[in-house]
Design brief:
This protein has 274 residues and is an alpha/beta fold. It binds 2-phosphoglycolic acid (PGA).
Amino acid sequence: MTKRTPLIAGNWKMNKGTTAEATVLITEVRDKAANVSGVEIAVCPPFTVLHALKSVLGDNSPIALGAQDVYWKSAGAYTGQVSAEMLSDAGVSFVLIGHSERRGRFGVAEPDFTEGVLKYFGETDASVNRKTVAALASDLKPIVCVGETLNERENGDTDGVIRAQVEGALDGIFTAQIAQIVFAYEPVWAIGTGKTCSSDEADRVCGIIRATVSDLYDAETGGAVRILYGGSMKPDNASELLVQPNIDGGLIGGASLKASDFVSIAVAAASLPS
Ligand code: PGA
């Protein structure tokens, strides 16, 4: 079977967004991770601190930078959008696409996010697809996020939702491009809630992502694609999730804001039996 290098990616979300706090956190992560090998590490901070973090990390850092979103056009009259070319120029190599919080699907209910407001988060499978295509064209590695809500899970729709999100993201993408893509299975009900998906169930759903890629392309491509789990992953539950056969790493939210927690998850990934 293809050997897949584990990836631990931190999603800082809208946190650590001042240059001062972002610099402190990335410096700690860099220093604590200095001797960690056998795992790829990436951090996805807010756009506004990408340049500052790039200058802390320098050009040949083992810690990669990621962005939290991208727009599919390269330039033009698109107020507020950020293109793949701009991210590349800022030293970014990964980009989160289709995070549930951009799809307007939140693990923790926000009382003021009524229906009329949620539509402004606006990400759909079609926009995820365009963003994925654009990211690949600029040599960025998309981390495509998929996941079901609690309601969908309770209705028995998990597998269908996941398949549809994966198929939607990959529309028109060629076999050779799949190696650049990472998927992240993030059950919406486990994000920021402290509820983790059981490791067996997380592995089962990651297996559905893999099987969907195999069905759309071929078994070798499905066997090679990297799939992360995300949703309340912490140092004390990371190992049992990361050891699962279909899970190749983690997308870490809350625990990525504390350098020691984040790096200990990376160490857990690096210490897996090969
Ligand atoms: P969490 O977030 O680790 O805080 O649950 C994960 C994510 O949303 O990427």
